[in-house]
Amino acid sequence: MKELKLIKEIEGIAGNPGKGVKLGIGDDCAVIECDRKSYLLWASDMLIEGTHFNLKDAGYQRTGRKAVAVNISDIASMGGVPEYITVSVGLPAEGSLKAIRALYSGIKKICREYGISIVGGDVNRSKKLVIDVSIFGKVEKKRLITRSGAKEGDLILVTGPVRNGRKDHLDFVPRLKEARFLSGNYRISSMIDTSDGIAADLNRICASSRTGCRIYGDAVPLSEGSSFEDALYYGESFELLFTMSPLEARKLFKDIGRKRLELVYFVIGEMRSKKEGCKLIGKEGRVSILKMQGYKHF
Amino acid sequence: MKELKLIKEIEGIAGNPGKGVKLGIGDDCAVIECDRKSYLLWASDMLIEGTHFNLKDAGYQRTGRKAVAVNISDIASMGGVPEYITVSVGLPAEGSLKAIRALYSGIKKICREYGISIVGGDVNRSKKLVIDVSIFGKVEKKRLITRSGAKEGDLILVTGPVRNGRKDHLDFVPRLKEARFLSGNYRISSMIDTSDGIAADLNRICASSRTGCRIYGDAVPLSEGSSFEDALYYGESFELLFTMSPLEARKLFKDIGRKRLELVYFVIGEMRSKKEGCKLIGKEGRVSILKMQGYKHF
Question: What is the mean pLDDT of residues B289-293?
Answer without folding.
Answer: 85
